[in-house]
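Figure 6 in text form: structure in, sequence out.
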């Protein structure tokens, strides 16, 4: 066998330097091509996550969707939903604010109207995904030019799955899955109506999570809910591509009421930074992590060995679960 191998190599070498030179050239071309592709990917990532979020978005959004048109935001009274409302009010959009606490909604309404826009409030418990809840929201949106819908409402829990109370399981599924699906379904005809009558684009931004992209021990139920949101959202970009811009927004840790205080500071951003980054990507991309820190975390998760990644995630999730219990959640 060794003699046969040596004879084969000798015959190949005796074929002349041409074979060797051609092989070397092909390897060099392949290596150069891979380097170019890597460089292009890095430039595109830098453009998406570092350049675009640093740019002012008001003029672009107003031109694309119509200054003075209306934006409906669920979960609008706190955190990320409130940040979206403030950002869009500064861009000249009118707001339909949906949440369960009228006092917070009224304060936000007053703040936003001082910027010279109109704001309306709809006080409903979005964990009740019944027809009555959807009707209240639809009635409020039916007589306005609805150009953008942002489904921002959500809730999480960090536990081993057997330790999650049954009531919490039902609550998470209702709020994160059923409500997002039903609000999207009931608002979509109004968005398409606006696009047809105005000649402009309309937009749907559903807030998912990086947790929906990776198997995440310790917060498996929330991850499953957010994977649902992603799978619901992205196909709509193709189904209604002539009229509708879609963004499946997948951030991670923000300094909101959902945060437990145990999250790593290196990846924790403000809701305002997250909202601005998401709006920078609306109308340009179908999926986004928004902020560069969250995009870096997703890139790290992709290359980490799954066993190592799962160990880190579970330890972090259980620590957050302890903090949730301490807060009485």
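Output sequence:
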């Amino acid at each position: 066998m060794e003699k046969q191998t040596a004879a084969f190599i000798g015959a190949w070498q005796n074929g002349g330097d041409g074979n060797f030179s051609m092989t070397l050239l092909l390897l060099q071309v392949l290596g150069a091509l891979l380097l170019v592709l890597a460089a292009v990917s890095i430039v595109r990532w830098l453009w998406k996550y570092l350049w675009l979020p640093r740019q002012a978005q008001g003029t672009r959004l107003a031109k694309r969707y119509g200054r003075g048109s209306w934006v409906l935001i669920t979960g609008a009274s706190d955190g990320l939903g409130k940040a979206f409302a403030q950002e869009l009010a500064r861009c000249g959009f009118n707001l339909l604010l949906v949440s369960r606490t009228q006092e917070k909604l009224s304060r936000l309404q007053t703040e936003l109207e001082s910027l010279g826009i109109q704001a309306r409030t709809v006080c409903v418990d979005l964990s009740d995904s019944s027809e009555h809840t959807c009707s209240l929201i639809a009635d409020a949106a039916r007589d306005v030019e609805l150009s953008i819908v942002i489904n921002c409402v959500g809730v999480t829990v960090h536990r081993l799955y057997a330790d999650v109370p049954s009531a919490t399981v039902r609550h998470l599924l209702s709020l994160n899955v059923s409500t997002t699906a039903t609000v999207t379904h009931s608002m979509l005809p109004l968005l398409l109506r606006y696009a047809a009558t105005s000649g402009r684009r309309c937009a749907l931004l559903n807030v998912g999570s990086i947790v929906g992209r990776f198997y995440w021990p310790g917060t498996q139920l929330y991850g499953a809910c957010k994977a649902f949101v992603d799978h619901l959202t992205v196909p709509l970009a193709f189904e209604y591509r002539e009229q509708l811009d879609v963004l499946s927004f997948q951030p991670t840790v923000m300094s909101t009421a959902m945060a437990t205080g145990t999250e790593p500071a290196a990846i924790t951003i403000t809701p305002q930074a997250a909202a601005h980054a998401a709006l920078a990507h609306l109308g340009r991309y179908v999926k986004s992590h928004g902020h560069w820190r969250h995009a870096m975390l997703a890139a790290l998760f992709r290359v980490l060995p799954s066993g190592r990644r799962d160990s880190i995630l579970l330890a972090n999730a259980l620590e957050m679960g302890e903090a949730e219990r301490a807060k009485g959640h």
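Caption detail: The CA atoms of residues 260 and 320 lie 6 Å apart.
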